[in-house]
Amino acid sequence: MNMTDYKSLDAKYYMPAFSRTMMIRSGKGCTVWDADGREYLDCVAGIAVCSTGHCHDHVVEAICRQAKELIHCSNLYYVPGQAEFAERLATATRMAQVFFSNSGAEANDGALKLARLATKRKEAVAFTDGFHGRTIGSLAVTHKPAIREPFGPLEPKCSFVGYGDLDALRKAVTTDTAAVLLEPVQGEAGIIIPPEGFIEGVREICDEKDALLIADEVQTGMGRTGTWLTMHQTKVMPDIVSLAKGIASGFPMGAIAAREGLAFQKSEHGSTFAGGPLAMAAAMATMDVIEPILPDIAGKGKRFAELLAKWNPRVRGLMIGITVGEQECPKVQQLCADRGVLVNCAGHGNLRLVPPLIISDSEIDRAAGVVNEALTEVLG
């Protein structure tokens, strides 16, 4: 089917919730090909999802091997691979126990449920420009008015304060606050890095007010910034962590990890598909690939930072953000695509690069060269 016919079919039968113009037909490593066979260096990676690149042999083999034995079994039974991966993830995150989900939004929903159970409180505090998902629960703690307001009233009740503003946070956290949700780097906002000492200050306020600290590491976790959790680069340990995106190389999966003393008991939470055999195989293989390259990720980010230095990039591992402008960013994105490099525009006109963690130095050089050319053409 040609793309004209495909677009017509899509327009007729698929709800028009997305803006898109091209189809990615196949991928390998950091490279993808569109429906016309054109090649691109992918610095979007499914929005920080394809952490091991596209169709990594080790991940594909693990999924295929498991698919030949068992594709699904209910959580009414012990699931092959589930306990083994739970141990590995708990160890990597330095948490006590985990619970699996099917997405980052679902993980954040679960984290909120667990916080409300543990504290017997009902409200939350989150940050302006934070993004935690689009389910009703995760949307309640997501700041962007355009995607929140059509669906109100939302639960849990949530107060929003400026990212980096500890004084405002101290006033906002009350005896009704179950949890504060924090992204250690704001991804959808455009790779916004918090001021020095901010995360430590959030932990202190949570401790003072007996509120839990939920670290949303859906985008920042699983090695994206050079450690399994970005929170590991601070002196702070959260009470609950939410994970997804890069956890299983593109297989739909999320997780929450919690410290000792925080756990769902029988019938308090559940999921039909979560933690299934295929997800466990994909996630275990993903960690196999990422673990040996973790020490290299900070250096890859530094290489991007040096090559893009003219534009004052914000860089934390392989999360790169550049302020471009609401009108200008789409132009830069398109110019990059025209020259064979995929990037995307996040919030407030910020250009975002979140390439596969396996990206090579030569691929970094190529991507940075194209981005520099596009930015120079648009911004001068």
Automatic annotation (TrEMBL):
Co-factor(s): pyridoxal 5'-phosphate
InterPro entries: Aminotrans_3, Aminotrans_3_PPA_site, Class-III_PLP-dep_AT, PyrdxlP-dep_Trfase, PyrdxlP-dep_Trfase_major, PyrdxlP-dep_Trfase_small
GO molecular function terms listed in the Swiss-Prot or TrEMBL record: transaminase activity
Keyword Transferase: yes
PROSITE patterns listed in its UniProt record: AA_TRANSFER_CLASS_3
Protein's UniProt keywords contain Transferase: yes
Keywords from the UniProt entry: Aminotransferase, Pyridoxal phosphate, Transferase
Domain of life: Archaea
Record-stated family: Belongs to the class-III pyridoxal-phosphate-dependent aminotransferase family.
PANTHER family in alphabetical order: ACETYLORNITHINE AMINOTRANSFERASE, MITOCHONDRIAL (PTHR11986:SF79), AMINOTRANSFERASE CLASS III (PTHR11986)
Protein name: Aminotransferase class III-fold pyridoxal phosphate-dependent enzyme
